Amino acid sequence: MKHKIYILFFILGIVLLPQINYAQVDFNKKPDDDLGNFEDEFQELFYEALKQKGVENYDRSAEALLKCIALDDSAAVLYFELGKNYNKLKNFGAAEDALKKAVSLEPANEWFLDELYGFYASQNNYDKAIKTVKQLVKYHPDYKEDLASLYVRTEKYDDALELLDELDTEFGVSVFRDILRNRVYKATGRKKDQIENLEQRVESNPNKESNYLALIFRYSENNEKDKAFETAKELLKVNPNSQMVHLALYKFYLDGNDAENAIESMKIVVKSSQIKPEAKLKVLSDFVSFVKQNPEYEADLIEATTMVSDANNEKSLAELGQYYLSKNNKVKALEYFQEALKTDADNFGILRNVLLLQIDLLKFKEAEENSIKALEKYPSQPIIYLIHGVASNELNKPNEAIESLEIGLDYIIEDVKMETDFYNQLSKAYTLLNNTAKAKTFSDKAKQLQPPN
Fold it and tell me: pLDDT digits over 215-258, tens only?
């Protein structure tokens, strides 16, 4: 829990001894009655308990504490330590009893209450956890956040919202409390209350960007796009340098066929150091779709892509590769896939596209070299064996083609089209070797796999 600050002197028994109310003992003086022996035994047992706990011998620690309790059962700290040992030993019933006993002896001891609260929370006994944390609130107000979280877990949503409102008023909003609040709104379907809360925040603190952004998101989620757009424009008036607002504005501009403003917002997004790569990818993806319908803005798309400087922008580059592939511009597609591969060398999908495009663009030497490297990483991918076979045939290396293709055949699983391609390439390789019989054998196999006309 939040406030477990166990000070060394507490653990070592400086708190313990006053509780026992023994007089100071001169340990250099030989005791003249049983009192000195009693105190010596008690201290030895207590320190033995702490020592055994320190080396995780919880059962021996518990045994020593029980002997202490047999000597004097009025020291709350003994039950506190005993409860922690039982908890470690997964003797949960005994752990609860011991911790409750410690609390009953010292009801105002925050550390005892906190341990009991933590125990109940770990056991998912939320009703008892709520009862205990309510006692803790008087010592530290931030235990109220724990209480609000427990109310959410136990579906006491009205109590949770009331407490969250109280905390927000007293301390201002926080990310953690907003997460709790949004869980309540989602569970109860109170979208109107959620929006009203955000509207009040904007009204009470009109210069805080995060309030506007949250309200824009909730308006959009609630399909109130006009209100979302107006709120975004209001934020831009209040804070003309806001970068985050353009994550919303670019989409509104696109939907409104305002291409110029959409492009401007998009460029702000991709240049921003505040915006995550995943969000930039979403913007670029939307703009790729837009450019497919409006090719006159292709130059703006290329410019925006070159602005992306994040280390993880291979997704954006691959997206552009797909875009150019859809336009049958294989040269440009290959360029972007190769750039994407530089930043994510282990992406098999991008690697496959690079190899296939190198074959399509008659870059057989590059395809041969890259497919050999690829087979070291992906020795069970039949498409790479096929690509290597094709490249080897085109480079007049039929023996290498045959070796690669025969290995790759073993990895094909229910793919008639690929199997046909393998047989055709094997036929071509044997033709290059002037082995017409073998060439015909594989050519016939390919024809047998082809569907009838």
Answer: 999 998 888 999 999 999 999 999 999 999 999 999 999 888 89
Q: Measured at the alpha carbon of residue 100, what is the angle toward residues 97 and 102, in degrees to the nearest 5?
A: 110
**How far apart are the C-alpha atoms of 373 and 11, rounded to whole Å?**
62
CA angle 190, 194, 195 (to 5 degrees): 120
Q: Categorise residue 80: left if φ over 0, alpha if ψ from -120 to 50, beta otherwise.
A: alpha
Estimate to the nearest angstrom the gap between the alpha carbon of 217 and the chain centroid: 21
Counting beta carbons within 10 angstroms of the beta carbon of residue 167, is it exposed (0 to 12), middle (13 to 18) or buried (19 or more)? buried
What tokens were used for 291? 């450019």
Tens-place pLDDT, residues 285-341: 788 788 878 888 888 877 777 665 444 456 667 877 887 887 788 998 898 899 888
Residue 423 to residue 75: CA distance in whole angstroms: 86
3-state secondary structure the chain: CCCCCCCHHHHCCCCHHHHHCCCCCCCCCCCCCHHHHHHHHHHHHHHHHHHHHHCCCHHHHHHHHHHHHHHCCCCHHHHHHHHHHHHHCCCHHHHHHHHHHHHHHCCCCHHHHHHHHHHHHHCCCHHHHHHHHHHHCCCCCCHHHHHHHHHHHCCCHHHHHHHHHHHHHHHCCCHHHHHHHHHHHHHHCCHHHHHHHHHHHHHHCCCCHHHHHHHHHHHHHCCCHHHHHHHHHHHHHHCCCCCCCHHHHHHHHHHCCCHHHHHHHHHHHHHCCCCCHHHHHHHHHHHHHHHHHCHHHHHHHHHHHHHCCCCCCHHHHHHHHHHHHHCCCHHHHHHHHHHHHHHCCCCHHHHHHHHHHHHHCCCHHHHHHHHHHHHHHCCCCHHHHHHHHHHHHHCCCHHHHHHHHHHHHCCCCCCHHHHHHHHHHHHHHHHHCCCHHHHHHHHHHHHHHCCCC
